[in-house]
Amino acid sequence: MALDGSDYIALAAVAVSIASLVFSWKASQKVDASARENTDIQHAVIENSLRQSIEGASARINDIAGLILPFESKKQLNTISKEDELTLQGYHRSLDAAIESWLNTYENACSNYIDGKIDKIRFRRNYDVEIRNLLDRPDLKKYFDSNTSRYKPILKVYRKWNDLENC
Amino acid sequence: MSRTKLIVQYRKILAEARSVEIAKAEILASVNTLVWVEPGKPNRSLTRHEKFQIIEEIFEDLDFQKSLPSLESERVYGSINEADNSGILDVISALKRGVKD
Prior knowledge:
The structure holds 2 protein chains of 2 kinds.
Chain A: H1 5-76, H2 82-114, H3 120-136, H4 152-162
Helix pairs in contact in A: 1-2, 2-4, 3-4
Chain B: H1 3-16, H2 20-33, E1 37-38, E2 41-45, H3 48-67, H4 71-77, H5 86-100
Antiparallel strand pairs in B: 1-2
Helix pairs in contact in B: 1-2, 1-3
């Protein structure tokens, strides 16, 4: 059977539509890959900034520790003056504020995790031990009372990771 | 069967399915028949949305467990959990003990 002109046109139309289908499928794959890459970059930026905030807040606590320790030594040796005693009290207030700021950085990190703004699996891998340490330390118990705590996102993440059967 | 065991089974169904869409439909039908209650409140059944939240969380947990390195790779490459705040927590403990003494 011989093909006439209209058959060739129809075949050409089919070929063009297949080509455009392949082209649009490839384009959509590229768009998907690019969107995934953008999301990964956004996650990485947020994760880096969270880690930097935590490191910064830890450094602040270390700085205050350096100021407190000489006064604490004097206090233990009973050689501390009234004036130094007052200074020490001031430093302890600064320490409490620094601890709260430090916990705020973890709270912020946990909020980002809950909101899905960071890679959840990577976050858990990096923060699992740290979050557990925060909740397990007797010195920080007062910050994590389940009724009065201001750090609800940290508590929520801790429970989610450690009490899955009852979530 | 506990929730976790059931959800692990869902995960297996999804992983082994020839058609993910069919597997999803099968799981959806199963979830619709489940009656889960809120812990401590036996009279309050969880909504479908709440049930899916739990499933999603346990899926996430399974993905996390899967992402952990095996003992062998830990021996070869070291632990990947490098971030640790125990140093700063020790500093806080020492300072707080100083106050109490």
